[in-house]
Write a structure and sequence with these properties.
α11 runs antiparallel to α12, α16 packs antiparallel against α17 and α16 packs across α22. The chain is 55% helix and 2% strand. By secondary structure, the protein is an all-alpha fold. The protein contains 25 helices and two strands. The structure holds fe (ii) ion (2 copies). One fe (ii) ion binds next to α16 and α22.
Length: 489
C-alpha cells in the first residue's frame, strides 16, 4: 500500500476538491447576465472584452494591466442592475434606457437631453410632465447617484469574488471621464486607470460596430475624443480600427476570451464554487427590492429538503447550486414588469415566462455550470405541464427539479411582492384544493417519494401553505378578474 500524498478521490475533503471551474469562467458567465441587464445581445460584454484586450495589446500595456483589463471589462457594468427598480420607476423600462444610453455622450447638455427625453416614457402626456417635474425637483445629481450606486455594487461584487486591488480600483472609476466631468469626478485624464480607459472605449465600440459598422464606431470615438475618452487611445484605435475589429462578427467570444486566455488561474474548490454562486444569487436578487434574500433562501430550503430526503451529497450540492442561480435570468426582464403592482399584460407575461430559459443560457458554459443551469431552468415547470417556459411534465421532472420548484414557490409565497402581500404561515389552505395542486409539482400521492417517511419529514417545508397564488400559468391561462395571481418569479 502506498503512503504519502492523499488520493484525490477519497482522502481529500469533498469541499476542497477542485471543481473543474475557474473563477475567470464564472466571471465570464456573470458577464452574460450583465448583457441581459444592459439590454444588449448576449456576449456583448465578451465581445467588448475581445476588443479591449486587442486595444490593450496595441497600446502596449504591461502584462499586469492586461490581466486587469480582462476582469475590469467583464465586470465593469455588472453593478448596472442595482438600481433597476428606481430606473424603471422613472423611465419605465430600465433595459431600454440602458440600451439607448450608448447613443449619447453622457455628460452636460447631451446627457440632460437624453434623460429628459426618457423620463416617464410609456406614460400619458400629463403624467409624463408630472414625472419630469418630480425628477428635476430631485436635483441635477440624481443621474449621478445612479452611477455611484453602480460603482458601489460593482466594487462589492469584485471584492466578494476576491479580485485584486488593481481591478477593484479601476472598477470604481467606471464612470469617470477624461475631461473630469464623470462620476464621482475624483479623477481625470491619466489619473484614470488605463484598464478602465480601454474598457470604456471597447464598450461603446462594440455596440456601434455591431449596429452601424466600423466607420460609425470610429466616428463616434472621434466625436467624444478628449471628453469621454482618452484622446491617445482614440487616435490609436481609429488608426487601426479595421485590424482591431477584424472578424469580431464571426468570433466565438467565449472561446476568444476564455479558451484563448494564457492564464485563467487554478480551478476553484467545490466550496469556493458554491460561494461564488452565492454571489450570483445575491446579484440576481438586486433586480427588485422585494427579492432581497430570495435566492439564498430558496437554496437553503431546497438543500435542506434534498438532504432530508437522503439524496447523495453530490445531488444535494447540485440542488443547492441550482437554487442559488435559479433566477439569474430574471435580470433579463425589465424591473418595470417585475415591480408592476397591477395585472401584467400579455406581453409582460411572455417576458416573465422566458426568465428560466435565460438562466439556462447564461450558465451554458462551462460544462459544470451547464449542469446547474439546466436544473435551475426547470424551477417554474409543473408536473401537469402547466409550467413554463417549456411545459415539461411528469417523469421528465427529476426529484431534484421538483425540489427546487417547490422551494422557490414556497419561499416566494412568504415574501411580499408589489402586487400582493406576503402570505402568512397561519393562513388556511382553501378546502379541497391540496391534492389537486400537489400533483403540479410534487410526486402524485401513492408514489414512494411522496408517501415515504422522508417526504413526511420535509412536508412542512415543501408544501405551500396557501395555493391561491400558485405559479403555474399556461400560455393561454386567463387570470380571473380580481385575482392577484400571475406567473411568479
Ligand atoms: Fe425564484
Ligand atoms: Fe423564477
Amino acid at each position: 500500500m502506498k503512503v504519502g500524498l492523499p488520493c484525490t478521490v477519497c482522502c481529500v475533503n469533498a469541499v476542497d476538491r477542485p471543481s473543474g471551474v475557474r473563477l475567470a469562467e464564472l466571471v465570464a458567465a456573470l458577464s452574460l447576465a450583465t448583457d441581459l441587464g444592459l439590454g444588449q445581445p448576449q456576449e456583448h460584454v465578451l465581445r467588448q472584452t475581445v476588443v479591449a484586450r486587442r486595444l490593450a495589446t496595441a497600446a502596449g500595456l504591461p502584462d499586469d494591466q492586461q490581466t486587469a483589463v480582462f476582469y475590469v471589462s467583464l465586470l465593469a457594468w455588472v453593478g448596472c442592475i442595482s438600481d433597476s427598480h428606481e430606473l424603471a420607476a422613472w423611465f419605465g423600462d430600465d433595459q431600454r434606457l440602458r440600451a439607448a444610453s450608448y447613443e449619447v455622450d453622457k455628460s452636460g447638455i447631451s446627457m440632460l437631453r437624453f434623460v429628459l427625453g426618457h423620463v416617464g416614457e410609456g406614460s400619458g402626456p400629463v403624467r409624463r410632465l408630472t414625472t419630469i417635474g418630480r425628477f428635476l425637483a430631485g436635483g441635477p445629481d440624481r443621474a449621478a447617484r445612479f452611477m455611484l450606486s453602480h460603482c458601489q455594487t460593482t466594487g462589492d461584487i469584485a471584492e466578494r469574488l476576491g479580485l485584486g486591488a488593481q481591478a477593484g480600483g479601476a472598477l470604481q472609476q467606471a464612470f469617470e471621464r477624461w475631461d473630469g466631468k464623470g462620476v464621482p469626478g475624483r479623477c481625470a485624464g491619466e489619473q484614470i486607470d488605463p484598464a478602465i480607459r480601454v474598457v470604456q472605449i471597447a464598450d461603446d465600440v462594440e455596440v456601434f460596430h455591431r449596429v452601424y459598422g466600423v466607420d460609425a464606431a470610429s466616428e463616434m470615438l472621434r466625436s467624444r475624443r478628449g471628453t469621454e475618452f482618452d484622446p491617445a487611445l482614440v487616435d490609436l484605435f481609429c488608426a487601426r480600427a479595421t485590424e482591431l475589429l477584424d472578424g469580431l462578427d464571426e468570433v466565438d467570444a467565449w472561446d476568444a476570451v476564455i479558451t484563448g486566455d494564457r492564464d485563467l488561474g487554478p480551478e476553484l474548490s467545490e466550496a469556493e464554487l458554491t460561494r461564488v454562486l452565492g454571489v450570483f444569487a445575491d446579484y440576481a436578487d438586486l433586480k427588485s427590492p422585494s427579492w432581497l434574500g430570495h435566492s439564498a433562501g430558496v437554496a437553503a430550503l431546497a438543500a435542506d429538503a434534498a438532504s432530508r430526503l437522503g439524496l447523495p451529497a453530490s445531488e444535494v450540492t447540485l440542488v443547492e447550486r441550482a437554487a442559488l442561480v435559479h433566477d439569474l435570468g430574471a435580470i433579463g426582464v425589465s424591473a418595470g414588469v417585475w415591480d408592476k403592482p397591477g395585472p401584467l399584460s400579455a406581453s409582460d407575461r411572455e417576458r416573465v415566462r422566458i426568465h428560466p430559459y435565460l438562466t439556462e443560457r447564461t450558465l451554458a458554459r462551462p460544462a459544470r455550470l451547464a449542469e446547474i443551469g439546466a436544473l435551475a431552468a426547470l424551477h417554474h415547470e409543473r408536473l401537469d405541464g402547466s409550467g413554463y417556459p417549456r411545459g415539461v411534465r411528469g417523469d421528465a421532472l427529476s426529484l431534484s427539479a421538483r425540489l427546487v420548484a417547490v422551494a422557490d414557490a414556497y419561499h416566494a409565497l412568504g415574501e411580499a411582492r408589489p402586487h400582493r402581500a406576503a402570505l402568512s404561515g397561519a393562513r388556511p389552505r382553501p378546502a379541497g384544493s391540496t391534492e389537486r395542486r400537489r400533483t403540479r409539482c410534487w410526486p402524485p400521492p401513492g408514489t414512494a417519494s411522496a408517501t415515504g417517511p422522508r417526504s413526511r419529514a420535509i412536508s412542512p417545508h415543501v408544501r405551500p401553505r396557501s395555493w391561491s397564488c400558485w405559479p403555474a400559468a399556461s400560455p393561454t391561462r386567463r387570470w380571473p378578474s380580481g385575482c392577484r395571481c400571475r406567473p411568479a418569479r
